[in-house]
Automatic annotation (TrEMBL):
<dbReference type="Pfam" id="PF13180">
    <property type="entry name" value="PDZ_2"/>
</dbReference>
<dbReference type="GO" id="GO:0006508">
    <property type="term" value="P:proteolysis"/>
</dbReference>
<keyword id="KW-0378">Hydrolase</keyword>
<dbReference type="InterPro" id="IPR004447">
    <property type="entry name" value="Peptidase_S41A"/>
</dbReference>
<dbReference type="GO" id="GO:0004175">
    <property type="term" value="F:endopeptidase activity"/>
</dbReference>
<keyword id="KW-0720">Serine protease</keyword>
<feature type="region of interest" description="Disordered">
    <location>
        <begin position="427"/>
        <end position="447"/>
    </location>
</feature>
<dbReference type="InterPro" id="IPR055210">
    <property type="entry name" value="CtpA/B_N"/>
</dbReference>
<dbReference type="InterPro" id="IPR036034">
    <property type="entry name" value="PDZ_sf"/>
</dbReference>
<dbReference type="Pfam" id="PF22694">
    <property type="entry name" value="CtpB_N-like"/>
</dbReference>
<dbReference type="InterPro" id="IPR001478">
    <property type="entry name" value="PDZ"/>
</dbReference>
<dbReference type="InterPro" id="IPR029045">
    <property type="entry name" value="ClpP/crotonase-like_dom_sf"/>
</dbReference>
<dbReference type="GO" id="GO:0007165">
    <property type="term" value="P:signal transduction"/>
</dbReference>
<protein>
    <submittedName>
        <fullName>Peptidase S41</fullName>
    </submittedName>
</protein>
<feature type="region of interest" description="Disordered">
    <location>
        <begin position="373"/>
        <end position="414"/>
    </location>
</feature>
<keyword id="KW-0732">Signal</keyword>
<feature type="compositionally biased region" description="Basic and acidic residues">
    <location>
        <begin position="373"/>
        <end position="394"/>
    </location>
</feature>
Length: 447
């Protein structure tokens, strides 16, 4: 007799739970429907505004530009690194990450409203035609460059391989302008430059494009060939003012110095989106000491490399605090309409650090001496100063110095690295002590 009410109680509880679950689903569905309805109302509002602009604006607007501006506004409102890329911007971005394009092979800058040649790249149409550092380009295909932006001038010089372009150039010491006809060729952006320094290797990485790891590998091989692998005491990897680039290249560069362990992890909105990237056996430097130089202009992929080598104690990090861009952007093509760059994840160093709006602090802070005319202008504001940046707790950091002296002899950060690898005793300001202390410095150098 006692079992009956218990059974009934059980049935009631079960029925009650089922009713509760049904009601919860109803509430959830109702909430979702309400949210969707509100979203549709907002989209209708957008449509109403769009129609008003089309019909009543003082001049007939470009409707495609209106749509592009609306999309860009939506994306840029998320964070500083999400944006819309129109078809041209998307092509330009692909050129940058691919690391090659049809062009002339000239590094240029804007100076006093004129396009000035920084240097011609070896074995390119520009170098073969005799273009020199310091030349000023005054016209491209008879069109004056005065009034053009640097990007506009660069676009005019780039073009299809084997097509021709005419440049008018003024050169210091020459009274008459030079007119050169050049044939465009495939130009490869050299993201890695290197040189041998008596018993050390110096490798400068300016960006992370598709050519970067191959450039690093070739540089290490060339340094070993020049000096003899057994005579190389170590390597300086210069990542100062490197704005970043491709994630896979940052992973490959880190892997070049590591035998094992995690390099970086990326974590999106959902837990199942977490990805971890690990090193594979094989250190290209055979365990030689490595020093990495960073500053306030080192961002994104540069910080991934510095963070991975720092956490694994594979390298000593020298310089000033890095920029602090700890987010990952995914490029999503939109067919013929360009693409969107969307922030999809944060990245974390092997120890689990997020450097978003914090940056990488060097193991040894060394400041370069900034000329009086540049003081106050050498500071980068850093990720933490960008409007709408992804937050990262209360200990966010501002920018730091990004000045690099053009003359290596005045580069305290670089010379500190050289001295440390050679076992010369130096203090944290980058000044040599009176007495050399090879043993002390060797203990600071990474093993």
């Amino acid at each position: 007799m006692r079992k009956f009410p218990m059974l009934m109680l059980g049935v009631v509880l079960g029925a009650g739970a089922a009713t509760l679950a049904t009601n919860t689903r109803l509430l959830s569905t109702t909430s979702a429907n309400a949210a969707a309805s509100d979203t549709y109302r907002q989209l209708n509002l957008f449509g109403d505004v769009f129609e008003k602009i089309r019909s009543d604006y003082v001049e007939k607007p470009d409707e495609s530009k209106l749509i592009e501006s609306a999309i860009n506004g939506m994306l840029s409102g998320l964070d500083p690194h999400s944006s819309y890329l129109d078809a041209k911007s998307f092509r330009d971005m692909q050129v940058q990450t691919r690391g090659e394009f049809g062009g002339l092979g000239i590094e240029v800058t804007m100076e006093d409203g004129l396009i000035k040649v920084v240097s011609p790249i070896d074995d390119t149409p520009a170098s073969r035609a005799g273009v020199q550092a310091g030349d000023v380009i005054t016209a491209i295909d008879d069109d004056p460059v005065q009034g053009l932006s640097l990007n506009q001038a660069v676009d005019k010089m780039r073009g299809a391989v084997n097509s021709q372009v005419r440049l008018k150039i003024t050169r210091k010491g020459s009274s008459d302008p030079l007119e050169l006809k050049l044939t465009r060729d495939v130009i490869r952006i050299k993201s890695v430059r290197s040189r041998s320094e008596t018993d050390l290797g110096y490798i400068r990485i300016t960006q992370f494009n598709e050519q970067t790891f191959d450039g690093l590998k070739n540089s290490i091989e060339q340094i070993n060939k020049d000096l003899g692998a057994d005579k190389v005491k170590g390597y300086v990897i210069d990542l100062r003012n490197n704005p970043g680039g491709l994630l896979d290249q940052a992973i490959a560069v880190s892997d070049a110095f590591l035998e094992r362990g995690e390099i970086v992890s990326t974590r999106g909105r959902n837990a199942d989106e977490t990805q971890r990237y690990n090193a594979r056996p094989g250190d290209l430097t055979k365990g030689k000491p490595v020093i990495v130089l960073i500053n306030g202009g080192s961002a994104s992929a540069s910080e991934i490399v510095a963070g991975a080598l720092q956490d694994h104690k594979r390298a000593t990090i020298i310089g000033t605090r890095s920029f602090g861009k700890g987010s990952v952007q995914t490029i999503i093509p939109l067919g013929s309409n360009g693409a969107i760059r969307l922030t999809t994840a944060r990245y974390y160093t092997p120890s689990g650090r997020s450097i978003q709006a914090k940056g990488i602090d060097p193991d040894v802070q060394v400041m370069n001496e900034v000329p009086a005319e540049l003081k106050g202008k050498d500071e980068t504001k850093g990720e933490a100063s960008l409007k709408g940046h992804l937050k990262n707790g209360d200990d966010e950091q501002g920018g730091s110095s990004a000045y690099v002296p053009p003359d290596p002899k005045n580069d305290k950060q670089l010379n500190y690295a050289f001295d440390l690898l050679r076992g010369v005793k130096v203090n944290d300001a980058g000044n040599k002590a009176k007495e050399p202390g090879a043993g002390d410095a060797a203990q600071k150098a990474p093993n």
